[in-house]
User: Which sequence fits this backbone?
């Protein structure tokens, strides 16, 4: 089935150019065009689409408005902005409704890969309503303590970008959102992001302020969600997994960038749990109600209830948000690395091992997960696991719970 | 002098002489005589007894007893022979007699001789008076001598005294007469029943009636006295009667002519011992003139008093001892005593001790020195409020030129003092102000001499005030463009309005060149004449630099603002040019594949080995290449790409022209082109909200201007127009507004009008839109300099005009006029 893409721009020449440019994918993609928001909505109402790529400034209805409408009506559609505007106000407007933000002139590879990446995991989530649910998410809730802290810091007269970076680094939701923003062309950054703190520094204090205080990219987790899972534990686990993953990647002489990705993947690997707990608290709670002996039983319960596990759910969101592919991949397969076609020492392997080690070191007895020995062995690092373990314990001792 | 005086004196002297000369001997004689008489009488009586005894011896015939009697007579003559005795019978016949002869004159005494109880005869004794007379004569002579000795000096003394007395009398009389005749006084004697006696004709002068009319009782005094004064007269009279019996009363009388005359009567009431009034003795004075004078005086005094009371100052009179003699009403008010109470009091009675003593010391000083004194002193009124008074104390002299006291006049100068104080303070403040003023401040006299040169002037012009003061401005050793300054000063003098002089080049004390901004203001005297000039200025070098920087910043701001828009403008064509090129790349790959197949087919055809398989391959390649689509799309893609490239080229050109490197020189500019460029550059600013309708006059001449600045102005106005429209239609409108740009020539002017269909400029900010830093945009957006700089560019730098018309709800039209003539080329 071809991917159906709707291009929206008020400049017909741009549309024609785009269509011509995408001709090379004419086998996979089906392209439609609309000269403006209202026309786009009309087309959408007639047939389903997978992706909408919209210009920002258009007479009558701007891109943000259009995508907001699309999000409301057809939440499962991937929403991408392709804009020549670098007007910050305009950008901020599109932060919430758009999954990704691309700037003109945009070379065909970027556009094509963005579309492909955001739709690459589309098939992972077979369930339509789950897809809708994830597509609709524009922010992830934060731990109340951290949320309060970041507000306090931002509203302070002496707000420190460093301190803000520290707080964001400790929160799964904030980290995910910040990484979305910096990985997208929202603010024009097209470079490797090494850590949430670095991302924060790249955005700058003013932008962070505007994003947090005006656009409200962060939100506070409500009490009912808190009861579904031991959130504090998940946070601690995620942070530790991030640290472990990086430790392992470093130990295996991975590049710095890979180690960074490993850290961030570890940090975000359980984002799916968060999504399920927050958006489907009742269902998720029921699913987890049964007796379970290990993390694997949790996966099983999730699979029975949702057809997928938190790994796929989280990965799908991160792919929609345009996070780097290695991270999405690591999150998606952190419980089943063997399913990943790529077989090399990278973030996925680090997160997989880090995750299991974290449970082994800090977890309870019923809170364990099985390392994929076959996969590890395939990477020829099986023998180094004890060394990893020692390094990870050392890392905990060093209090390397934060970034870097 | 009367002759009687002499006589009396003579008589007195004579009488004393006579007494001495006559009565002394007479007295002697008389006393001698008396003594003799008594002696004789005693002798005769005693002798008579003896004789009687003799007689009685022969009573009947006593004459017979003659012998015996004789004897007796002889024997009884005891004393002197000058005694003669005889006895006579009744018939007078001498019976017996003493032997002595009688000498005359003599004194004779006799005594009856009784015989038998009957008078028988008498005994006579005579004694001669000669010795007595002799004594008397001697005494008389001595008396005469004595009296003469007494008389003569006495007479002289008496005469002298008499003469002096007479002289006195004469003088006194003379004086009296003069008095009586000269003073308007009439002596009178009055009676209980108002009758009077007059002794002087002058009554006629006073009353018009003659003296006789009163003296003859034809008139009584009551007849002339004014009735209204009667009661008072009675009272005085009765009062006097009870006390001293003398009185003075003043009243009016009616003269014969019917005039009122004032009389002063001074009288003494003369009473009988039993207390009844006998008469009244007194004088009348005509005091009419005095009365009139008094009344006049009173009137004058009243007037003076009215004046004194009505002046706001307090005034008083004091004697030598600083006692108040008089004071005016304000004084009374201020001290809280009535004027009557004041008299005789001293300052100590009214004022606080310390003040009072000071006042008295001042009085004493005035009296001592005889100098008028002007004092400023404290004064505490009745209400306890302290005020300041200015007092003039002057000595008061009597006719002899002696100081008899002081007079004072004082006024409340609190307000003045406060005003002075205020003025002094204001002055001090002004001084302070001048000192603290951070501008250069130079004061010039009308002749251009420096009289003020403040600290800032010292600092900024490097010339000390002492060096500058009193010098003519043009002679000061300051390197500045004095001819420009002089021109401005002359203009200010002429027009009498402040003249603003910007950009006066000068050499700073540090040797660098700078600019002064100076405003020259005339100081106008009340007469309207110019009484000086004030030059106020400051070193505006930094300001000018800042202004230039600000203008630059504004330019950068608008370019920055444009940059995003321009980026978008360029991004869009680049996007599709890129897309099209990639498409062409893909398309040509397919076409080349097809061409390869076709080539193969052609070659096969040449060799006659065309196989169905080959044809099939060609067809497949053609199908895969979607040849029909490519045939349609390739030319469009190329033309659109070329168009896109042209679009980019145009924008880049416009941008280049727009940001024409600023030159200080004006150059001939095609305004239409400049406007079109600016519209292009700003396209992204307006294209979403407005249609651009241009009506540019192709016959527009080249206009001398600075193109970068001009473009800036047009850009500012177009951007503002777009914003104004966006406010009405929204940022992404379905119905766009319109921006109209029109140029035309109007005489020596080129007119550019830029209109929008925005909401118009609200009334309340119309007057401020050209003000620097005025902005309606959010804080942080826009420097608020756009229109201010536009105004400055058009008006100041190009000698043009910029104005606007605005209609709420309809839009705004900015109208710019630039002179075609190159007159202002610099």
Assistant:
């Amino acid at each position: 089935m071809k991917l159906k893409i709707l291009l929206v721009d008020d400049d017909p020449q741009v549309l024609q150019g785009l269509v011509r440019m995408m001709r090379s994918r004419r086998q996979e993609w089906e392209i439609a065009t609309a000269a403006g928001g209202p026309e786009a909505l009309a087309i959408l109402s007639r047939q389903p689409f997978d992706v909408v790529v919209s210009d920002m400034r258009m007479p009558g209805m701007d891109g943000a408005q259009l995508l907001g409408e699309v999000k409301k009506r057809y939440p499962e559609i991937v929403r991408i902005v392709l804009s020549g505007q670098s007007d910050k106000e305009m950008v901020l407007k599109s932060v919430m409704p758009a999954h990704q933000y691309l700037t003109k002139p945009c070379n065909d590879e970027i556009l094509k890969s963005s579309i492909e990446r955001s739709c690459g995991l589309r098939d992972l989530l077979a369930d339509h309503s789950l897809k809708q649910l994830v597509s609709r998410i524009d922010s992830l809730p934060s731990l109340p303590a951290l949320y309060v802290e970041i507000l306090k810091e931002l509203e302070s007269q002496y707000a420190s970008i460093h301190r803000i970076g520290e707080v964001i680094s400790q929160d799964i939701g904030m980290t995910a959102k910040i990484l979305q923003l910096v990985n997208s062309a929202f603010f024009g950054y097209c470079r490797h992001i090494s850590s949430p703190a670095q991302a924060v520094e790249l955005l700058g204090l003013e932008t962070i302020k505007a994003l947090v205080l005006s656009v409200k990219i962060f939100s506070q987790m409500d009490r009912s969600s808190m009861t579904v899972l031991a959130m504090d534990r998940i946070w601690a686990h995620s942070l530790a997994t991030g640290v472990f993953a990086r430790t392992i990647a470093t130990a295996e002489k991975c590049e710095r960038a890979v180690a960074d990705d490993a850290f961030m993947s570890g940090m975000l690997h359980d984002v799916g749990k968060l999504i399920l707990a927050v958006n489907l608290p009742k269902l998720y709670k029921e699913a987890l109600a049964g007796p379970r002996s290990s993390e694997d039983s949790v996966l099983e319960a999730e699979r029975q209830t949702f057809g997928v596990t938190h790994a796929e759910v989280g990965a799908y969101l991160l792919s929609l948000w345009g996070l780097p592919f290695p991270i999405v991949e690591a999150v998606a397969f952190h419980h089943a690395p063997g399913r990943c076609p790529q077989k090399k020492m990278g973030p996925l392997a680090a997160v997989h091992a880090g995750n299991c080690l974290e449970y082994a070191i800090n977890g309870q007895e019923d809170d364990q997960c099985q390392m994929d020995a076959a996969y590890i062995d395939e990477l020829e690092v099986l023998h180094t696991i004890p060394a990893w373990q020692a390094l990870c314990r050392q890392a905990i001792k060093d209090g390397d719970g934060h970034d870097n | 002098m009367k002759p009687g005086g002499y006589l009396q004196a003579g008589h007195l002297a004579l009488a004393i002489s006579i007494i001495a000369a006559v009565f002394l001997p007479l007295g002697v004689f008389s006393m001698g005589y008396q003594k003799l008489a008594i002696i004789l009488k005693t002798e005769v009586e005693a002798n008579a007894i003896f004789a009687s005894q003799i007689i009685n011896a022969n009573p009947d015939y006593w004459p017979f007893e003659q012998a015996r009697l004789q004897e007796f007579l002889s024997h009884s003559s005891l004393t002197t022979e000058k005694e003669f005795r005889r006895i006579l019978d009744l018939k007078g016949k001498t019976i017996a007699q003493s032997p002595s002869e009688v000498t005359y004159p003599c004194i004779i005494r006799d005594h009856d001789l009784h015989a038998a109880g009957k008078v028988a005869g008498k005994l006579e004794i005579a004694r001669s008076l000669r010795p007595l007379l002799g004594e008397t004569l001697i005494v008389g002579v001595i008396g005469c001598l004595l009296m003469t000795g007494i008389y003569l000096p006495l007479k002289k003394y008496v005469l002298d005294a008499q003469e002096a007395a007479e002289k006195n009398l004469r003088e006194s009389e003379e004086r009296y007469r003069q008095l009586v005749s000269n003073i308007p006084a009439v002596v009178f004697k009055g009676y209980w029943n108002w009758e009077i006696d007059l002794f002087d004709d002058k009554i006629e002068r006073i009353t018009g009636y003659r003296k006789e009319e009163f003296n003859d009782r034809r008139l009584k005094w009551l007849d002339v006295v004014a009735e209204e004064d009667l009661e008072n007269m009675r009272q005085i009279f009765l009062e006097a009667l009870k006390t001293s019996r003398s009185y003075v009363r003043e009243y009016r009388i009616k003269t014969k002519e019917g005039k009122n005359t004032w009389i002063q009567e001074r009288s003494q009431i003369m009473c009988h011992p039993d207390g009844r009034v006998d008469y009244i003795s007194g004088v009348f004075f005509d005091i009419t003139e005095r009365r009139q004078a008094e009344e006049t005086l009173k009137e004058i005094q009243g007037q003076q008093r009215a004046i004194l009371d009505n002046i706001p100052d307090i005034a008083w009179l004091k004697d030598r001892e600083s006692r108040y003699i008089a004071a005016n009403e304000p004084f009374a008010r201020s001290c809280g005593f009535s004027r009557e109470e004041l008299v005789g009091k001293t300052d100590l009675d009214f004022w606080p001790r310390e003040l009072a003593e000071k006042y008295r010391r001042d009085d004493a000083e005035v009296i001592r020195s005889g100098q008028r004194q002007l004092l400023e002193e404290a004064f505490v009124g009745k209400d306890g409020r302290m005020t300041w008074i200015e007092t003039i104390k002057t000595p008061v002299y009597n006719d002899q030129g002696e100081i008899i006291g002081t007079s004072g006049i004082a006024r409340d100068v609190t307000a003045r003092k406060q005003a002075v104080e205020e003025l002094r303070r204001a002055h001090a403040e002004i001084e302070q102000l001048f000192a603290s003023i951070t501008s250069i401040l130079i004061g010039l006299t009308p002749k251009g001499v420096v009289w003020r040169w403040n600290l800032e002037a010292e600092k900024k012009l490097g010339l000390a005030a002492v060096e500058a003061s009193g010098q003519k401005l043009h002679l000061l050793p300051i390197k500045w463009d004095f001819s420009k300054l002089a021109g401005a000063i002359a203009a200010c003098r002429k027009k009498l309005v402040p003249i603003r002089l910007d950009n006066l080049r000068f050499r700073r004390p540090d040797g660098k060149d700078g600019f002064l901004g100076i405003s020259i203001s005339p100081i106008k005297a009340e007469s309207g004449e110019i009484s000086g000039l004030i030059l106020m200025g400051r070193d505006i070098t930094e300001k000018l630099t800042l202004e230039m920087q600000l203008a630059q910043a504004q330019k950068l701001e608008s370019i920055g603002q444009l940059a995003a828009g321009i980026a978008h403008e360029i991004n869009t064509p680049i996007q599709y040019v890129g897309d099209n090129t990639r498409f062409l790349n893909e398309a040509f790959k397919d076409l080349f594949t097809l061409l390869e197949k076709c080539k193969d087919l052609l070659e096969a055809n040449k060799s006659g080995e065309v196989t169905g398989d080959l044809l099939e391959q060609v067809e497949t390649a053609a199908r895969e290449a979607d040849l029909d689509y490519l045939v349609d799309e390739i030319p469009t893609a190329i033309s659109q790409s070329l168009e896109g490239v042209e679009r980019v080229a145009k924008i880049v050109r416009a941008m280049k022209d727009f940001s024409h490197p600023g030159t200080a020189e004006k150059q001939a500019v095609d305004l239409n082109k400049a406007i079109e460029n600016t519209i292009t550059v700003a396209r992204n600013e307006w294209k979403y909200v407005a249609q651009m309708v241009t009506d540019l006059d192709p016959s527009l001449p080249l206009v001398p201007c600075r193109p970068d600045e001009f473009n800036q102005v047009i850009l500012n106005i177009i951007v503002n127009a777009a914003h104004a429209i966006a406010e009405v239609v929204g940022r992404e409108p379905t119905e766009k507004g319109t921006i109209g740009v029109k140029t035309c020539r109007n005489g020596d002017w080129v007119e550019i009008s830029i209109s929008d269909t925005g909401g118009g400029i609200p009334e309340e900010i119309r007057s401020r839109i050209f003000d620097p830093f005025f902005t309606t945009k959010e804080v942080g957006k826009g420097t608020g300099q756009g229109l201010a700089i536009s105004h400055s560019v058009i008006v100041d730098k190009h000698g043009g005009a910029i104005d606007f018309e605005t209609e709420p709800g309809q839009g705004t039209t900015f109208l710019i006029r630039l002179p075609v003539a190159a007159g202002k080329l610099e």
The first strand of chain A starts at residue 3 and ends at 8.
